[in-house]
Structures are given as C-alpha cells and as structure tokens.
Amino acid sequence: MSRLMVIYGAGGHGRVVLDILRSLSDVVVVGFLDSDKSLHGSIVDGLPVVGGIDQVPTLLLEYPGISAVVAIGDNQARREVAEELRKRHMPLTNAIHPRAFVSPSAVVGTNVTVAAGAIICAHAKIGDDVIINTGAIVEHDNCIGNAVHIAPGAKLAGRVTVGEYAFIGIGATVVGNLNIGRSAVVGAGAVVLHDVEPFSVVAGIPAKPIRKSS
Ligand SMILES: CC(C)(COP(=O)(O)OP(=O)(O)OC[C@H]1O[C@@H](n2cnc3c(N)ncnc32)[C@H](O)[C@@H]1OP(=O)(O)O)[C@@H](O)C(=O)NCCC(=O)NCCS
C-alpha cells in the first residue's frame, strides 16, 4: 500500500527530498507546503505548492494517513516548522534514500532526512528533525542531537557527539571522540581536532574559532 506524503519546504532542499521520496516505490508525494506565500499555487518539479501551515487540517481530511517531512536546511527554521506541524497533529516521517546505508543497530528519530550515499554506522543515535545530507558519513556510536544538519560529504569519526542545532559544513572532517557543542557551526572543509564550544563557529585546518554563532 502506498504512503501519502507532503514535503514542507519547496526550495532547493525540498527538491532533493522530493527526489528521495520519488525513489521510494511505496511513497506518493501529494505536493509541497511552504511558508513563502509567493510560492503558493506554483508548481515545483511537477508538484503543486498547496499552501502553508494553515493548509494542514485540509490535507489531513483530504488524504487520510498522510505524513510530512520538513525540507528546510536552516536548523532553527526546520525545528520550528516541525513543532508547528506536531501541534497540528500532522505525523512526521523520515525520508531515507534507498542508496543510503543506515545500520540496523542505529537509532533514528522522526522527521529525519538521510540523502543519497549517506552512511550511518553501528549504534549511532540520530535525534529528531535532523538532516544527514548527501554522502555524509556518521560513524559508529555518534550521538547526533535534535535539529542538527550534517552537510554533504562531511565525515564524523567514531563516538562524536553533536549538540542540538549544530551545523557541520560541507566536506568537514571531525576526528573521533569529540563533542561539538549546541548550535556550533563547523565551516566547509574544516578538520576538527578538538571539542567545539557551544555557539562557536570554527573553520580551517586545523579548525579554529572565527566568531560566535547566533
Ligand atoms: C564557516 C562559515 C559559516 C563562516 O561564515 P561567515 O561567518 O559568513 O564568515 P565570512 O565569510 O565572513 O569569513 C570570515 C573569515 O573566515 C574565513 N572562512 C570562512 N569560512 C571558512 C572556511 N570554511 N574555511 C576556512 N576559512 C573560512 C574567511 O576567509 C574569512 O577570513 P578573513 O577574515 O581572513 O577574510 C562559512 O564560511 C561556511 O563554511 N559555511 C558552510 C557552508 C556549507 O557547508 N554549506 C552546505 C549547505 S548544504
């Protein structure tokens, strides 16, 4: 039986998530929701943007059993929309590409996107509202907090802990056993050799603080 889904977020990441869902034979995507009213009524990659959060009750009535995934790259915005959807009783589910690997011993929350080529290894724990983006590697025993985004090609060695709302930039490498603090940002291509303080932005090889995050 097919699963009906709607994607919240009709931007670039939304189109990536649509590709993921279209590669799953049991999912039918009915359209997008988006907070940007200028998109309402438009067609994105062949599907309508049916409205914003106010459209949720109609969708729940029109498509019994429907669920949503939030496709917004920004951690804070993704989490806020997910919380609004939960308040409105919209079930949230995951978008996991069939060519991602998720270890059977990993524990994965809800509203999690795992893009093509991503690898989540043994005993990793992934919170809610997380993006493990294209080709990212989350090694064994990692603990990834809620609303984290691991960008494409980033690599986290074993036993790394990533605090809520943190962002690990594209192609960054984090060596094992480190803590990346809440809301920290690791710059593109950084090599992280030491713990990163909460709300700190680090970049470079080896990674050094460049400013505080907001
Ligand atoms: C780290 C980052 C967040 C900093 O952004 P920012 O605060 O706007 O920083 P700025 O661009 O003003 O740069 C500040 C300084 O840090 C340096 N810097 C910025 N990003 C850097 C990086 N990734 N590696 C090395 N140095 C970097 C800049 O060259 C600049 O140095 P300068 O003061 O000597 O000129 C951003 O550059 C970055 O790497 N973002 C990741 C993007 C990404 O992964 N996107 C994927 C989306 S799926």
Automatic annotation (TrEMBL):
Keyword Repeat on entry: yes
Binding residue positions for acetyl-CoA: 149, 170
Molecular functions per Gene Ontology: transferase activity
Binding site for substrate: 73
PglD N-terminal domain sequence ranges: 6-85
Residues at the catalytic site: 140 (proton acceptor)
Keyword entries, A-Z: Repeat, Transferase
Family annotation (SUPFAM superfamilies): Trimeric LpxA-like enzymes (SSF51161)
CDD domains in the record: LbH_AT_putative
Gene3D superfamilies per the UniProt record, alphabetical: 3.40.50.20, Hexapeptide repeat proteins
Site (Increases basicity of active site His): 141
Domain of life: Bacteria
PANTHER family found in the cross-reference section: ACETYLTRANSFERASE (PTHR43300), UDP-N-ACETYLBACILLOSAMINE N-ACETYLTRANSFERASE (PTHR43300:SF7)
Name of the featured protein: Acetyltransferase
Protein's organism: Candidatus Fermentithermobacillus carboniphilus
